[in-house]
Amino acid sequence: MSPEQFRAWRKSMGLRQKDAGECLGLKKRIIQYYEKGERDGKPIEIPKYIRLACYAAANGITDFDGERPVKENLQDA
């Protein structure tokens, strides 16, 4: 997932950077790093677990209880 794809995911979800951070369990600053593609001038890769979390959120999955996904509308959460 490129920084551009990450930003496009966030915007397609209708989320502000702060909201995307809350959705993914990250601080807003990390969202900004991922969207910029670098941190302190060094390239930063979006980890696999974040890419998977983006996919889950895009499909309405907001949590996993160990047996089954928990689905909620993110706009209602």
Give the helix/strand layout:
Blueprint: H1 3-12, H2 17-24, H3 28-36, E1 38-39, E2 42-43, H4 48-58, E3 61-64, E4 69-71
Antiparallel strand pairs: 1-2, 3-4
Helix pairs in contact: 2-3
Instruction: List SSEs in N-to-C order.
Output: HHHEEHEE
The helix fraction, in percent, is: 40-55%
What share of the residues does DSSP label as strand, in percent? 5-15%
Given the C-alpha coordinates, what overall shape results?
elongated
| Strand order in the sheet with the most strands | 1-2
What is the CATH C-level name?
A: Mainly Alpha
Structural class: alpha+beta
Query: How many β-strand runs?
Result: 4
CATH superfamily: lambda repressor-like DNA-binding domains
Tell me the CATH architecture. Answer: Orthogonal Bundle
